């Protein structure tokens, strides 16, 4: 197993969110402590749920869908926490707001990159459908066209998506921009910042795994050193060790495991490690020589079996790509709606703060 990259330093978005636990920090009321503990315990449960029982499931679109669902839930819960804290936008430090808006722009950009890759992968389904249609006929002309469609699918899946090239810089900027101003001496503010720390850790983790899986580049993985003083630290550490470790091991050896069989992917010119995609490619590899070389009486049954298998696996791939694309779109909408709500509240706050000024800034006399 390859050695993991040097972990990033712990990032504290607005000073040290754990300072509240020290004697010098603001003391939390039982209500605030309960809100924080409830949030962190729920986050720990979500992180534990993401830890796959089978390491081979890490590089699968199905696991990625679960990861994005979990991330959407975390971002939704933080909105609820903000409401329960009763901390209006007017009490937010301007630097908090600037950082939040900057982070949301980066998250929207990375969502667009992921969506474009999922759309690109799903476009390959058209080539598979065309091949399956041609394979229904035994005429030599149709079989040649089927080979051409399968070739086109391979080339399409193996091509690179330029939108993914910026993911690494976006992820690094998300980490580097988080060590920023200290939170004011506010118990509510410190609860919010500590909860936001958890949200950001899970966000960077999930997005880095997606970037690595789509680009087949373990350099997009980010290891975060989370202080063990928080309730979800162990759950996160276990998850990060399992997922990032497995991805690095697979990428370093150029291998993947499907149905217990280890195959050298790079030697076959493959550039994907996604489980459902590789299952389709395996069937394509079985079918291709039968189509090219022709089938004798003993190969007809094997051809029929592979043909049916390709149809099932191609449909499964298309469906899971659609499901994952929906989850990425949901995350995009959650981030966008939160950003819009903040901007709307800021505009309302400005209006309420100075209700007697006209558009030119002069006082309005009633």
Could you describe the 3D structure shown?
A hairpin with a 2-residue loop joins strand 1 and strand 2. The termini are far apart. This protein has 366 residues and is mainly α. The chain has one domain. Helix content is 66%, strand content 2%.
Give the helix/strand layout:
Layout: H1 30-50, H2 61-85, H3 94-135, H4 140-158, H5 167-176, H6 187-215, H7 233-253, E1 255-258, E2 261-264, H8 275-293, H9 300-353
Antiparallel strand pairs: 1-2
Helix pairs in contact: 1-2, 1-6, 1-7, 2-6, 2-9, 3-4, 3-5, 3-9, 4-8, 5-6, 6-7, 8-9
InterPro entries: ROH1-like (IPR008511)
Organism: Populus deltoides (Eastern poplar)
Pfam families: ROH1-like
Properties at a glance:
disordered N terminus, 366 residues, elongated, mainly alpha, 2% strand, single chain
At a glance:
With 366 residues, the protein is mainly α. The protein contains 9 helices and 2 strands. The protein has one domain (19-337).
Mean pLDDT: 81
Order of helices and strands: HHHHHHHEEHH
Shape: elongated
Number of domains: 1
| Tally of individual helices | 9
Based on the structure, what is the oligomeric state of the protein chains? single chain
**Strands across the major sheet, in which order?**
1-2
Major sheet attributes: 2 strands, antiparallel
**Poorly predicted runs of 5 or more residues:** 1-25, 256-269, 351-366
Q: Please report the distance between the alpha carbons of the first and last residues.
A: 76 Å
Rg, please? Answer: 25 Å
How much β-strand is present in the residues? under 5%
Number of strands: 2
Give the structural class: mainly alpha
Helical content stands at 55-70%
């Amino acid at each position: 197993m390859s050695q993991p990259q040097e972990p990033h330093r712990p990032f504290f978005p607005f000073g040290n969110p754990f300072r509240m636990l020290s004697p010098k920090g603001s003391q939390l009321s039982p209500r605030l402590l309960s809100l924080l503990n409830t949030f962190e315990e729920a986050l720990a449960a979500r992180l534990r749920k993401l830890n796959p029982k089978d390491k081979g499931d890490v590089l699968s679109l199905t696991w990625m869908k679960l990861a994005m669902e979990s991330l959407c839930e975390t971002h939704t819960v933080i909105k609820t926490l903000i409401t329960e804290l009763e901390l209006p936008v007017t009490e937010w430090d301007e630097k908090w707001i600037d950082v939040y808006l900057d982070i949301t722009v980066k998250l929207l950009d990375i969502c667009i990159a992921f969506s474009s890759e999922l759309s690109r992968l799903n476009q390959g389904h058209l080539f598979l459908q065309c091949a399956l249609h041609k394979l229904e006929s035994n005429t030599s002309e149709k079989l040649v066209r089927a080979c051409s469609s399968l070739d086109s699918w391979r080339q399409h899946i193996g091509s690179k998506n330029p939108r993914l090239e910026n993911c690494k810089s976006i992820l690094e900027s998300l980490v580097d921009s988080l060590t920023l101003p200290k939170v004011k001496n506010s118990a509510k503010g410190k609860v919010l910042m500590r909860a936001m720390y958890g949200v950001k850790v899970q966000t960077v983790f999930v997005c880095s795994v997606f970037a690595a899986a789509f680009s087949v580049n373990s350099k997009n993985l980010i290891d975060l050193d989370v202080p063990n003083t928080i309730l979800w630290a162990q759950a996160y550490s276990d998850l990060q060790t399992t997922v990032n470790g497995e991805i690095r091991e697979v990428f370093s050896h150029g291998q993947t495991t499907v149905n217990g069989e280890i195959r050298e992917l790079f030697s076959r010119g493959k550039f994907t490690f996604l489980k459902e995609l590789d299952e389709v490619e395996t069937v394509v590899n079985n079918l291709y020589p039968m189509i090219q070389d022709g089938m004798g009486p003993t190969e007809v049954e094997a051809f029929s079996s592979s043909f049916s298998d390709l149809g099932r696996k191609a449909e499964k791939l298309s469906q899971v790509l659609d499901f994952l694309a929906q989850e990425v779109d949901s995350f995009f909408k959650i981030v966008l709606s939160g950003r819009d709500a903040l901007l709307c509240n800021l505009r309302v706050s400005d209006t309420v703060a100075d209700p007697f000024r006209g558009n030119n800034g002069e006082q309005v006399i009633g």
